[in-house]
UniProtKB/TrEMBL annotation:
It comes from Vreelandella halophila. InterPro entries: AlkB-like, AlkB-like_sf, ALKBH2, Oxoglu/Fe-dep_dioxygenase_dom. The keyword Transmembrane does not apply. It comes from the Bacteria. Residues 94-192 form the Fe2OG dioxygenase domain. This is Alpha-ketoglutarate-dependent dioxygenase AlkB.
Length: 194
């Protein structure tokens, strides 16, 4: 299994992750059944629409604030449970929440951030499953912006960000002018009691 070096961390990368027909079916299910929404974010006191659609899914009773947004959790659908278990087995974590993002075209994106909300605990493991069009995912060291890593995330790939990555590195999904198919990304997370 290939790994990406993101010193001092190693990021396992699984591609293909699912059987090809399973991945295609999952993409179709997610497009059809997830209540996608273009949420708003408040930045410096001004409200903006985020440049993508998203849906936060969590087990009952969990609350989450994500990058200045308070997300209303959607119910965890039964058909997503086997996938969460499969991803959790590989990542060595018991995931109880997923942030689903839908990038309609190359002008949808996600800016620099870490997945470091307090609800995730001090050193979360995050597993990122990509479906649909290939997009470039970038890392940049939090202190030394000259240290970067770019990874193309194709359809049916799983990238694991082990414990510690979030406190040393930011990541982003930049816009692209290249023609790209729609993409869905699921980041599996474990919310701990605050
Ligand atoms: O779409 C991606 O690959 C990244 C998503 C991400 O960073 C997040 O949901 O926090
Ligand atoms: Fe993230």
């Amino acid at each position: 299994m290939p790994v990406y070096e993101l010193p001092p961390f190693q990021l396992p990368f699984h591609h293909p992750f699912l059987a090809p027909e399973e991945a295609d079916e999952l993409l179709a299910l997610l497009l059809e059944r997830i209540p996608w929404k273009q949420d708003r974010i408040t930045l410096f006191g001004r409200e903006h629409l985020i440049p993508r659609e998203q849906c936060w899914i969590a087990e009952d009773g969990l609350n989450y604030r994500y990058s200045g947004q308070t997300l209303e959790p959607a119910q965890w659908p039964d058909w997503l449970r086997p996938l969460a278990r499969q991803v959790g087995d590989i990542a060595g974590e018991h995931f109880n929440s997923v942030l689903a993002n839908r990038y309609r075209d190359g002008s949808d994106s996600m800016g620099w951030h870490s997945d470091d909300e307090p609800e995730l605990g001090p050193s979360p493991v995050i597993a990122s499953l990509s479906l649909g069009g290939t997009r470039r995912f970038r890392f940049r060291h939090r202190e030394d912006h000259g240290r970067t890593l770019s990874i193309d995330l194709p359809h049916n790939s799983l990238l694991v960000m082990p414990a510690g990555v979030q406190s040393h590195w930011h990541h982003a999904l930049p816009k692209t002018r290249k023609p790209v198919s729609p993409r869905i990304n699921l980041t599996f997370r474990r919310l701990v009691d605050a």
